[in-house]
Amino acid sequence: MSIREEMMSGRLYDASSGELLAELYRAQELCQEYNALRITDFEGRAALLDKLLPHKGSGLTIVPPFFCDYGSNLEFGDNVFINGYCVFLDEAKITIGSNVFIAPQCGFYTAGHPLDKDLRRQKLEYSLPITIGDDVWIGGMVCVMPGVTIGSGSVIAGGSVVVKDIPPGVLAAGNPCRVVRPLAPGDRDRYVR
Prior knowledge:
Layout: H1 3-9, E1 13-14, H2 18-36, H3 42-52, E2 61-62, E3 66-68, E4 74-76, E5 81-82, E6 86-89, E7 94-96, E8 101-102, E9 107-109, E10 111-112, H4 117-121, E11 124-127, E12 130-132, E13 137-138, E14 143-144, E15 149-150, E16 155-156, E17 161-162, E18 170-174, E19 177-182, H5 186-189
Parallel strand pairs: 2-5, 3-6, 4-7, 5-8, 6-9, 7-12, 8-13, 9-14, 12-15, 13-16, 14-17, 16-18
Antiparallel strand pairs: 1-11, 10-11, 18-19
């Protein structure tokens, strides 16, 4: 099994492997270039995203600055909006559905470290995938932790720390994040007269 396959498998792996570091540095340099472009350089930004993110649908908008570890482990559906200062530690796959809104300063962390100090000293880590369904809204400064799935149509309130799966069609909030209530047709009446 290659070190990359170990990384994607959920097993402990050596994150300081030369093979992984080369990919990591490539993605970080592309992020640095992307973040340095003028906000109105739409062609330049699109070209860099094509290099960095090979698995994306149409209509992806990423407001800089944007940070990811590999890019190749990110998958975006259509019409995804990501506001500034978001971080994607994509050691495992992060799948974002279509029509997803992500507010500023959100973090998606697939990587984790062992609780045992001796294993941490060996620079071992593990990674678990994150999945975000279609039509999800994630409020500002939300942290999504390794192995979490957020169901389609749900809303995650700002400042939440999502450590467990969230079902579809709910409002969830808090640290740790938990379901507040199901979303209902009456929620529309609040905004539409």
